[in-house]
Design a protein that fits this description.
With about 625 residues, the chain is mainly α. It has 23 helices and two strands. The chain has a two-stranded antiparallel sheet with strand order 1-2. The longest helix has about 35 residues.
Length: about 625
Amino acid sequence: METPANSTKDNSGYESAEKIILRWDSTASEVGRERMIFGTDRQEADFYLQAVDEIQRSLSSASISDCSHNVDADNQSKVKTTIQIAMARLEDEFRNILIIHTSALEIDSLFDSSTSFSSSTPTHHDLEDDEDCISDDSGSSRNNLLQLHHCESSDSSTYRTSSSIREVDLMPAEAICDLQAIAMRMIAAGYLRECIQVYGSVRKSSVDSSFRKLGIEKLSIGDVQRLEWEALEGKIRRWIRAARVCVRILFASEKKLCEQIFDCVGTDIDDACFMETVKGPAIQLFNFAEAISISRRSPEKLFKILDLHDALMELLPDIEAVFDSKSSDSIRVQAAEILSRLAEAARGILSEFENAVLREPSRVPVPGGTIHPLTRYVMNYISLISDYKQTLIELIMSKPSTGSRYSGDPSTPDMEFTELEGKTPLALHLIWIIVVLQFNLDGKSKHYRDVSLAHLFMMNNVHYIVQKVKGSPELREMIGDDCLRKLTGKFRQAATSYQRATWVSVLYCLRDEGLHVSGSFSSGVSKTALRERFKTFNAMFEEVHRTQSMWLIPDGQLREELRISISEKLLPAYRSFLGRFRSHIESGKHPENYIKYSAEDLETAVLDLFEGYPAS
């Protein structure tokens, strides 16, 4: 395109220029109403721009001296009117070029590009939601991939050096040249505000269209906070994927287009047009994350908040690069403040979770002494926390003070942190949650009327804790082998306590004391006492068998180990007792009423224990 020349004006040049301007006046000319100058006849477009330059030179000359160049006051007014007509026409042309070259972006391709070029690994929940991602299988989708540019020129803006940002060419080069040429004339004539407004309104509509395709809804902070959490979880997943596209591709490409059109026109004009276009959409985008960051805290929100935090932390360098001007300070500040609030929310939720575990109020014993729902919930929660190890280590900066935590309060457990020197603050949090969980479980065990069942309950639950720690390499590393050994010792102690509470009294029936007639130890056996002893043993064993077959040890290996331990104590004692006293019973009447079981029968019966249903 022609650029403004510095030649002097003569009357013939002005009159020719004026004719061209008036010929395309859409308010007075039929051809001006029916046709657009740009995009049809390149020569006409060049002539029109030359005419605008000529009129502008006339106006500049008239401003220097009203009397020079034969320009009187009337003629000066006429020149101003002509330039106004020209600017109105250029504004229409500018708008038309923007509109006809604004095409729908291939959102599928944008998702693929943003994912492929992400500098960070997906979050735990991103991996869970892979099936929700936009499909890339069709050939047409691949053919429609937008052309991506790596801007490597030495004079490129700083933000283009980020490996995660990929700029899309939003308009063809010829259209950009036309827009640049028009913008130069409008700004030179004092129509900067009109130029920015037209540009912003058209491009913002395009950005809004892309937002709709990305699934970004126009929700106020209040709207977001009124939604049920289940609905928000899906929206958070979509927001994370969409935010990557918006910052790294959509906003970056809009900034590139502004620079291509306006960078050579004047200082900060490209920034003004960029913010006119994307400020509203950017605020809309980040308002969603802000609403989540200040929403009511609850344990189930932690992991989505961490996903949001990680995604925003990953995007922050790109946000700072794309919104790097003074006029876009507010966007950078908003993103940084949201990140800070998300971090604070995560810390708060973790702290509140500790208290929730401690205060969980359920008093109804779980049937059969099996694993309490609280234990499952807390340990699954802790396992997920370990998946966010790196993020949480960075968020939890303050280490609990050494010495006893909550010491002296009977409603809370004590924990000596001096034994845990060298642990990260996150590891101490997790160990403390496990300590709190055990404390709560111990309280729940006291609601069982049967002391044996209380011990079995603790054995089951602490064993579950141990297995969950062992099953997560990250969690095991943080908890440490010393703590794991202590936990293992606790469930084994609970198993020993169960055996004592249940089987000592049963085995007590198989002692010799009380069966011999006084003064005749070698041969004097009281058959009456012996019969009572067998009857007592039979009744006690049957009661244990009847009751404890309905108790449950869900872990097969633990169940088998406890049965073996019981058999190793019971069967030798019974065989020995039977061997010593069988003949005294069998020599009397109805021996089957007293010797009801063989050792093999007991061994089989022990296999019925802890299955969780009545034995046959």
